[in-house]
Specification:
single chain; alpha/beta; TIM Barrel; 10 helices; 9 strands; globular; binds zinc ion
């Protein structure tokens, strides 16, 4: 009789499964191919000409299920990778201040993980029709300040649940020059310096979970700087449904 573990650990998506074992292979391939891992903050602070020849920026947006982040960070730090993780303050799915989350984030920051704010502030302020006008800057300042009480936050990344949800990025880009001073931040994660000087690799639904434009393996083969976004709640240790 087959044991359950054998059944659940079979490959679900051919070569493009979203297991941590696959992530380990991606990191291994990048390291073997001469890539240097940098956080978003480190990349943004460096002149493009002064960067190592092949840079790999590992970015994670923590949309939901914080418990799925810890094994990923364990794997990455063990392999010498310093990722950048953007966490939500106004998420309906988790409370960043809960005992299961903030103390863990503080702990991982000590291991070189960079944390930033992940937010769809435009959606929040548009939908918050409670008789009080909450403006974008007010909400952003509150989110950043809360995180800054515990973490060294220098960047932020906009979140979007679905394609028909409000996109906060255009407003952010339009107001960024003033906002970065108001919020005391250095960068936002879709800055042209990051987007124009790297190959962007990300997963998403189309309609099933897949790599959007290029796989990590294809990107690594180009030898160009790589900026890779993944969402921890879609990745798994033993089976894709372990956190459901
Ligand atoms: Zn997101």
């Amino acid at each position: 009789m087959k044991n359950l573990r054998t059944i659940y650990t079979r490959k679900f998506h051919g070569e493009n499964d979203f297991s941590l074992e696959h992530m380990r292979k991606i990191i291994e391939l990048a390291l073997e191919s001469g890539y240097t891992f940098m956080t978003c903050r480190e990349f943004m602070a460096c002149d493009i000409a002064a960067l190592p020849k092949r840079v790999f920026i590992m970015k994670h947006d923590l949309d939901a299920k914080p418990d799925t982040l810890w094994p990923l960070l364990q794997l990455e730090t063990e392999m010498g990778v310093k990722p950048t993780v953007y966490v939500r303050v106004c998420a309906p799915d988790y409370n960043v201040m809960s005992l299961r989350v903030m103390p863990e984030l503080v702990w991982w920051q000590n291991y070189g993980v960079e944390f930033g704010l992940h937010t769809n502030f435009v959606e929040y302020t548009k939908l918050a029709e409670v008789g009080q006008d909450i403006n974008n800057t007010q909400l952003l300042r509150a989110e950043v300040q809360l995180l800054k009480n515990f973490l060294d936050i220098r960047g932020m990344s906009t979140h979007r649940d679905l394609n028909y949800a409000y996109n906060a990025l255009p407003w952010l880009e339009e107001h960024w020059d003033d906002l970065k001073d108001v919020l005391d931040l250095d960068y936002q994660a879709y800055d042209p310096k990051l987007m124009d000087n790297t190959i962007y690799v990300n997963e998403g639904y189309s309609p099933h979970l897949c790599w959007r434009n290029i796989t990590p393996e294809e990107a690594i083969a180009t030898g160009k700087h790589i900026y890779m976004l993944t969402h921890p709640h879609w990745w798994w240790v033993t089976n894709p449904f372990e956190s459901y």
